[in-house]
């Protein structure tokens, strides 16, 4: 496998974080997974000098700061802090208006409905490098 792909999971559900981590690790794509239960903590990580994240898997419905509020804050970050990360919405919402709203953000590379399945996990590597 090639160089690891650092993935940031942002989801308020501990169970969803665990399940998604397991699916990513079993996908055989070399994912290095970081988990955040709060969107603000994920933004703080991006603002820090921590290692670059290639892919962000972002839930929509979270308390405190939801996924769309995260996207607004992410797009306001300096380019050096965004660092070319691809964002894929990973949400239980199958609502077409949520898909359309997410697609309106330049930083959003895709939308996957939970739960993440192995085939979708394998395709994420391509979205991260696109």
Structure description:
The protein is α/β, with parallel strands linked by helices and 130 residues long. The protein has one domain (5-129): Rossmann fold. The chain is built from six helices and five strands. The chain has helices at 14-26, 39-47, 67-76, 79-82, 96-103, 118-129; strands at 5-10, 31-36, 55-58, 86-91, 108-113. Strands 2-1-3-4-5 form a five-stranded parallel beta sheet, with helices on both faces. Strand 4, helix 5 (96-103) and strand 5 form a beta-alpha-beta unit. The protein is globular, with a radius of gyration of 13 Å. The protein starts with a strand and ends with a helix. The mean pLDDT is 92.
What would you call the structural class?
Answer: alpha/beta
User: Distance between the terminal alpha carbons, to the nearest Å?
Assistant: 18 Å
> Could you describe the largest sheet, including whether it forms a barrel?
5 strands, parallel
Uncertain segments of ≥5 residues (pLDDT<50)?
Answer: none
What number of structural domains do the residues give? 1
Cα-atom Rg, whole angstroms? Answer: 13 Å
Helix content: 40-55%
**Total number of helices:** 6
The CATH class: Alpha Beta
- Let me know the CATH homologous superfamily: Response regulator
Shape: globular
| β-sheet strand percentage | 15-25%
Q: Tell me the strand order in the biggest sheet.
A: 2-1-3-4-5
Mean pLDDT: 92
Number of strands: 5
CATH-defined fold name: Rossmann fold
Examine the secondary-structure arrangement and name the CATH architecture.
3-Layer(aba) Sandwich
Pfam families: Response_reg
Keywords: Phosphoprotein
Modified residues (4-aspartylphosphate): 59
Domain Response regulatory: 6-129
